[in-house]
Predict the structure.
Amino acid sequence: MPKNPNVKKVMVIGSGPIVIGQAAEFDYAGTQACRSLKEEGIEVVLVNSNPATIMTDRDIADKVYIEPLTAKVLEQIIEKEKPDSILPTLGGQAGLNLGMELEESGFLASHNVKLLGTTAATIRKAEDRQEFKDTMEKIGEPCAASLVVENVADGVAFTNTIGYPVVLRPAYTLGGSGGGIAHNQLELEEILENGLRLSRVGQVLVERCIAGWKEIEYEVMRDSAGNCITVCNMENIDPVGVHTGDSIVVAPSQTLSDKEYQMLRTSALNIISELNITGGCNVQFALHPTSFEYCVIEVNPRVSRSSALASKATGYPIAKVAAKIALGYTLDEIKNAITGKTYASFEPTLDYCVVKMPRLPFDKFITAKRTLTTQMKATGEVMSICTNFEGALMKAIRSLEQHVDCLRSYDFSALDRDELIKRMQKVDDQRIYVIAEALRKGIDYDTIYDITRIDRWFIDKLAIIVEMEYALETQPLTVELLKEAKRIEFPDNVIARLTGKSESEIKEMRYANNIVAAFKMVDTCAAEFEASTPYYYSCFDGENEAVETNPPKKVLVLGSGPIRIGQGIEFDYCSVHATWAFSKAGYETIIINNNPETVSTDFDIADKLYFEPLTPEDVENIVNIEKPDGAVVQFGGQTAIKLTESLMKMGVPIFGTKAEDVDAAEDRELFDKILEQTHIPRAAGGTVYTAEEAKEVANRLGYPVLVRPSYVLGGQGMQIAISDEEIEEFMEIINRIAQDHPILVDKYLQGKELEVDAVCDGTDILIPGIMEHIERTGVHSGDSISVYPAHTITDKVKETIAEYTRRLAKALHVKGLINIQFIAVGEEVFVIEVNPRSSRTVPYISKVTGIPIVDLATEVIIGKTIRELGYEPGLQKEAGYVAIKMPVFSFEKIRGAEISLGPEMKSTGECLGIAKTFNEALYKAFLGAGIDLPRHKRMIITVKDADKGEAIEIGRRFAKLGYTIYATRSTAKALNDAGVKANKVNKIQQESPTVMDLILGHKIDLVIDTPTQGRDKSRDGFLIRRTSIETGVNCITALDTARALATSLENKNENPLTLVNIADL
Amino acid sequence: MKAFLILEDGTVFEGTHIGADREVISEIVFNTSMAGYLEVLTDPSYAGQAVCMTYPLIGNYGICKDDMESKKPWPDGFIVRELSRNFSNFRADYSIQQFLEENNVPGIAAIDTRALTKILREKGTMNGMITTNEAYSINDILPKLKAYTTGKVVEKVTCKEKYELIGSKSLSENGAVSGSAKFAAADYEAGIREKKPSLVKTLNGTGKKVALLDFGTKDNIAYSLKIRGCDVTVYPAVTAAAEIIASAPDGIMLSNGPGDPKECTGIIAEVRKLYDSDIPIFAICLGHQLMALAAGADTHKMKYGHRGGNHPVKDLATGRVYITSQNHGYVVDTDNLDPAIATPAFINVNDGTNEGLDYTGKNIFTVQFHPEACCGPQDSGYLFDRFIKMMEVTK
C-alpha cells in the first residue's frame, strides 16, 4: 500500500522531561521518526517540553513547540497549526496518554485530526487492564489470574482467593510506578493504596505472582496490511520480579529451544494482530522455567525503551519504520536501510550476542534501598556486543562507569557460604557479583538457581568468568591463556591485577602475539547479504571487517555513555551536533558510545559507529584501526573528558581546548594561579586528602564549607558541612572510593548563582546569554530553576560576568565551549567553577537564544573565528523571550532516597517554560514539570529555625492565594505570631492526627519542608518528605523554589497560554 | 584437539575439534537460524552438506530428543563458533557434543563463522574438508574437494518402507493448547514425555487420507497433517505413482529433501504421473522443484541458497508477506515459465526468486519454503489448511 496522500502535516508528541522509566530512548525514537516523516515530504509539528532533546531542534521538525505537555496546550497548538494528523506512539507513555486524552474528549474528531498509526480502540485494548485481559482470553492467550481493582478491599478479597504473593500493576503509569509484589496483607494494602493513587484511571491490576519465571520480550512490527514480523526477542537474566528496565537483558534469547522461541513468537504475532496494531509494539512474556506454560505480562502499543534497545541490538530502525507504517506504507515497501538491498519485511538475525545492563542511581542516593522490584529504578543503560556472552557481559560491566570492571569489583569475599546463600536472596544490583563469589566458594549451580531462579546457563557463564579469574591468578600467563582471557573480554587492567603484572606488560604481550581487537559489523542479516553501514563492535576471535578509510580529515567524537543523574541527554545532544558540524566541514566522523537509548548511537548519525565501552583500552583498539587526525572530548561530558590523557598517550591530538588547560581548570593550585593572574575572586578554600586536613582548612575558613572531590560531574559527593563531625562523615564517604585527585574544601558563600556557556576561539568569546538560578547557592545548578535572561542582576554584574568569562577563556586557552558558574554577592562576582567543555545548559541556551553554540564551537575548533562565523563577539543581545528551565525529579521511583536539594545533583531531567513574560514562563515551567496547582488548596509548612522569617512571607502569599496552612509546632507559632493563620499539626511520634496522616489523606497540594542545616539528621523530616513524594504530593525543600511557585500561582489566569514556535527564534 | 576446515578456494580455518573424530569432505553451507540447531541437524535436506551456524552460541539448551525432525542427524559436518560447554533446558536429554559423537558427526568450533559465511556469500557455496590432521597437504586435498558432489542423496534419506500416522481424533491428543502446557518436573525427570503445545485449533482434516512421498521429509510435515486429523501414509521416494494412485488418497504431499532435483530423474517421471492424476497435490521444497521439473519447468543452483528462519515471502494473490523457514540451494526458474503450466504464487521479498507455484488448471500448489517450520516461524502453517480445503473441494 503506498503512502496515504491525505497526510501532509503531522504533529508528533514527545515524551517530556527525562524521568526514570522514560528517558533518552524517546528522543531517539522521536528524532528518527521526524526525520523519517520529513524524508516523505511531510510537514512536522513537534511538541515536547524537554529542551535537552535533539528532536526539539529546528532542523528536525518544521515547527517546534517546547511547551508543557498537557491536553490543553496540545489543543491550542492543534488549533494554531491545524495538523491533519497526530502521531502519539513515539512519545512514550506520556505521549500516548495525551493522544488518548485528546481522542477520548472528542477534540481530535471535532478538529478533523486523525490519530496516525495504532488507533485509539487498539490503545485502549492494550492499555486498559480489563479490556486487555478480555482480548487475550478471546484469542486464547493466557494471562496470569488477575483482577482489576479500584479499591483496596476488592484487592484483598481477590488475593484471598488466589493466594499470596501477588503482583500489583497500576494502569497507565510509566516504569511500573507504584507497582510491587505483596507477600502479605499489610504489604498488599500499602502498595495498592499507593498504586491506585498513581494510576491515571485509578485502577490497579492484582495478579498471580509469576516471579521466578523466565522473562522474555518480543519486539514486533505490523503494518496496515496485516504483515507482521518480530524484530528480535530478548531474555532477561533476572527472572520475572525485576522490572525489565532494571534487569540484565540478553538478545537474542539464549536458553530457549526453537519450540519455546516459536511458541512465544507466534503468540506475539497473534496478539499484535488481534489488537490490530500498526507500528511497533513490545510484548512481554513470563515463561515457566520447567514447562511450556507461559503468561502474557503486558503489551506496549508504541515504541519503548525495549524497542530502542532492539533497534540498536539488531540494526533494525523500529521508530523509522513505525513512522513509515503510520503513513500507510507496508513493510515490504520500506527498504532496509542497513543492507540497502533487502526490505523491512524480514526478521533480523544476529551473529553476535548483546547484553544490556541498567545504570542504577544508588551511587547518588546512598540512603536508598538497592532492592530491585517491578518498579524501574535505572536512570539509563549500557549495551554491549560481542561474539560470546561472557565478553558481552564483561564489556557491559565496564561500560557502566561505576568503578566496576569485572566480577570482583564488589568484594564479597568476606562472606562465608551461609552468608552468601542469605545474601543471594537479596535481589539488587550487586547480585551477579554475589553469585560470582558464591561460585568462587564452590556453591553449586542448583543451589544458586533455587535461590535466584537465574537460569543455569547464565550461572555457568559467570562460572567461566570466575574460572578465568582463577586461572589468571594461579597459572603462568601463556599466550593461549591470554588469548582466551581476551576472547571473553577481560580488560588488560584486570588481567594485570590478577596476574600481578603491569597493564603495559599485558599490552606488550598482546601486541607481540598479535592478540588485538577485530571489528565486526552489525548488519541485521548475519552476513547473508552485503551491508555497507559501518556499525561495528569488537571481538578477539575473528578477522577485522572495519573498512580502512583514508579521508583527508577524520575525527573521533567520544560519546557520554549511560544516562545518569548529572550526565544526561544534554551531552548526547552536544555529541550529535558536533558530529554533524564536523561532517558538514568535510570530516569523516566516528562516534564511540555504548548507550542504546541515544540518537548518537543511531547508525546513520556519524560516518562510523563503534558500539564499545568508553575505557582507554577499548578506545585505543579503535584508534589503532581508524588512526583519526584528532578527537573531540569536550562534548561527551565527564566520560569523554576522562579519556583525554589516554588519548594523548595514544598520540591522538585533542581538538579544541588542550588537556593541560582542562587540567588547569580542575586542578586547584593551577586554577588559583590563573585566578590570581586574571584578578578574579573566588571563595577561599584549600585542597586536602584526609579528614584531619579538611577540618583544619574548614576551621581556618569558618563553617559552613563546601566539601567535594575534584573531577566529578553533577556535584557527586559534594556536601555543605557545618561542623567537624560532618567533615569527618563526608570525608569518609568520599574516600570510600580511592581518589586520584585531592578533595576540595571551600568557604560557602551565599548569593545569587549565575551561569554562562560561551564559545571561545582563542581570541574572542561569544556569550549567548547569562542564566540566573532561582535557588541560592547551595543547591546544585542542575537542580535549580534557571532563568534566561538573568533578570535580577544589574548591568554592572552582567558586564563583570562577561569580562571574567573573557579573561578565564583566554587564560585557559579555550577553543570551543566553556561553562562558568558565578556567585554574585551584591555587586561582587565570584567564580565557583569553570568547566572548559560543554555543559547541561548548552541545548537549553542554544534553543532559547537561537544561537547554535555546539555548531559554532565545532567550527571554532576546526579553525574558524567567531567573527568569520558572522557573530559579533561578547555578550549577545538578550532575546525577546524569558525561558525558564525547571528541574524534574524521579524521587517517587527510588524508595528511601533523600529528596532535599543540596550541592549534589538529584534531578533526572528538565523542562522548559518559554514566554514573553517572566511570570508566564515560570507558570509554564511548573506546569511542564507536572506541578498543576491549586487543587485542594491545603499545604503544610515545616521549616528549620533559620528559615522561619522567610517562611512567614511565603506563607502569607499562599494564604492570600486561598491556601489553608498546616504547620508543625514551632513553624505554626512563628506564622501565627506574624499574623499568618496556620493550623498546628502534631509531629509524627505524637498522637494522631499527625502531619503524616494529613499527607496520607490525599488532600494536600504542597509540602514545604526545609531540612535542618547540612545533612538532615531528623528522621521526621526525611519521613515527611518521602511520604509526600510517594503519595504524589509536591514537596519543596528550598524556600526560593517555594517563592517562585507562589509567584507562578499568583499570576495564573484563565487566559490561554501564548505559544512560542522555537523554530522561529 | 585442533581441527581444520579447508575450503575449495584454498582458505583454511583453524579451530578446535568437536563431535566425532573423523575426516569429512562435504558441501559447506550456512544457516542463519538463531535457535533450532537440533532441527537443522536432523533435517534430511542437509544430507551431503556440512552446516555452518551463523549464530555463534550453539548447544545452549542441549538436545531435546523430542524436537528431532528425523531419526538421526544428516549433515556430514557441523561448524560453529562456540559449542556451549553446559546446557540448560528442562527438556534437555544430553549435550550436543554427546549427540554429535554418538551419531558420528564430526565438526569444528572456535572459527570465525562470520568470515566463513562471507566467503560463501561472495564466492558461492563450495566444498570443504573438516579434518584434525595437522599434517594435511593442501595440494592433495584440493583436487579431492573439487571432485566431490553430493550425488543421489534422496535414496540415502528416504524411508525404506511405507508407514502410517493416524490422524488425531481429538484436540487433546495434540497436546495442550499453546501457553497452558504445564509439565510436572518430577514426571519429566522420570521420563514421562508430555506432548509439546499445539497451535491447531480445529480438526479440519478428519477423514482425509494423505499420501506423503518421502524425499527426506521432516517429521513435522506428516505431523502437521496428523494434528489436523488427516491420516497420513508415508511412502519411500522410489514408490511407483501407480501404487499411490491405487491407494486412492484424498491428497498427495511431496516432501522436502536434499540435493540437486535434476538428479532425481526416476522420481520426476513418477511425479509426472501424479501430476497427470486429478488428485490434489501440495509440495514443499524439493517436492516443489520436482513437480516443476515434472511439469516441464526448469531449476537452477543458487549462489549460496536460502537457509534460515527469517526469509520474507510474499503471497502474490493477497500481497501478504510471511516470514518463513527455508533450506534450499536450488530454485525453480520462472523466467521461461509457461503460464499454461503454472504461475508464480509466492516470491522471496529479498531477492525476488520464486517461492511457490500454482499449477494452471490443476489442484496443485507447491512452495519452496517450509510451512511446517521446525525450526523457524510458524506463520505459513495455514497452507496445510489450504491443502485440506483443496482436498475437500475436490472430493
User: Anything to note?
Assistant: Chain A has a mean pLDDT of 92. The CA atoms of residues 472 and 481 of chain A lie 8 Å apart. The first strand of chain A starts at residue 9 and ends at 13. Residues 456-474 of chain A form the longest helix (19 residues).
